[in-house]
Amino acid sequence: MSCLPLAASLEDEVPAATAGFYRRALRALVDAQVPFLVGGAFAHACYTGIRRSTKDLDLFIRRGDYERLAALMRAEGWRAEIPFPHWLAKVYAGEDFIDLIFNSGNGIAPVDELWFRDNAQVDVLGVPVRLANIEDGLFTKAFIMERERFDGADIAHLLRAKAEQLDWARLLQRFEPHWRVLLAHLTLFGYIYPGERHRVPRWVMDKLIARLAAETRQSPADHLHVCAGTLLSREQYLHDIEQLGYVDGRLTPASTMTPEDVAVWTAAIPADEAEPAGDEEHAQPAPSQSLPRR
Q1: Which of helix, strand or coil describes residue 14?
Q2: Residue pair 178/149 in contact by the 8 Å Cβ criterion
Q3: Hey, which bits of the chain come out as E strands?
Q4: Are 57 and 98 in contact (CB under 8 A)?
Q5: Which residues, in sequence order, are CB contacts of 176 under 8 Å at separation 6+?
Q6: Cβ pair 45, 38 in contact under 8 A
Q7: For residue range 140-181, what is the model confidence (pLDDT) as tens digits?
Q8: Taking the mean position of all CA atoms in its chain, how far away is CA 121?
Q9: Mutual angle of helices 152-162 and 179-192, in 10-degree steps
Q10: What is the tens place of the pLDDT at every residue in 210-262?
Q11: Nearest to 17 by CA among 126, 79, 96
Q12: CB 138 within 8 Å of CB 155
């Protein structure tokens, strides 16, 4: 476990009562030795120095640890529930809440043992915790391309701040079936920071560009009827799935989602973000279904 010179966590950006809830929850988990990693705005501030107010605390956990963690939280008098069984649970103290994340919303990034290797240690709200590794956080952020939210700037800022410290081989491994998404973000990084392009290792770009060149010479026949756009946005490619007959990328081996998971996730699309559809699939979610900013 490394201990890096990281930026201060967001004590000043969180109301005192909310910070007290977070601090008490973190301390309970640390004392009980339940494995977890801090992500979201807290980790982003530590890695990049960018501070922004946050409405929640994101903790990455293994799905198998949820029941034990939930029991601890309930013993503190808080409410624990799983609004989205394929990736997200929540702990509530009044209107404040903590997100417990054990996969990505598109089902491609289950939290496994690899997440808990070589994590940086830092104090968050005065509690010594481990952070989600940049590679894993970057991987999950890379697929957030909704109409109302795009995490590309977070990725660019992570690369600008920590490119030399990244385990690039590990990052390539994480993106293996989705290497085009990584190439897209690295290309954007070179556009956003033209004077920083050299900080992405040449061998990484050479490998991805060579793979792109090789793929353009192959027949796309095996992929003609798949729309992987649903791995990037849960809403913007529904037309392709529902009206054009494409196979949902979330229902291929690329994702762990089931048809039931897809239905629940689609039903939770806020009404003001969904395309006009005239059906119940796009109903406004209950307040308990507020989603994390990872």
Answers
A1: coil
A2: no
A3: 37-38, 57-60, 79-84, 88-93, 96-101, 121-124, 127-130, 145-146, 149-150, 226-227, 247-248
A4: yes
A5: none
A6: no
A7: 999 999 999 999 999 999 999 999 999 999 999 999 999 999
A8: 20
A9: 70
A10: 999 999 888 777 667 999 999 999 999 999 999 999 999 999 999 999 999 99
A11: 96
A12: yes
**Tokens for 232?**
């990037």
CATH tag, 11-132: 3.30.460.40
- For residue 73, count other CB atoms closer than 10 A to its CB: 22
CA distance 194 to 210: 22
CB atoms within 10 A of CB 258: 14
**Distance from chain centroid for Cα 204:** 23
* Arithmetic mean of pLDDT, 52-61: 85
Angstrom distances, CA of residue 1 to CA of 46, 226, 273: 16, 41, 41
What is the number of helices (H) and of strands (E) in the chain?
Answer: 10, 11
pTM of the model: 0.87
> Stretch 263-269: mean pLDDT, rounded?
95
Lookup result for tokens 């990328």? 249
Q: List the domain boundaries for the chain.
A: 11-132, 145-216, 221-276
Contact 35, 62 (CB under 8 A): yes
pLDDT digits (tens, 9 = 90+) for 20-37: 999 999 999 999 999 999
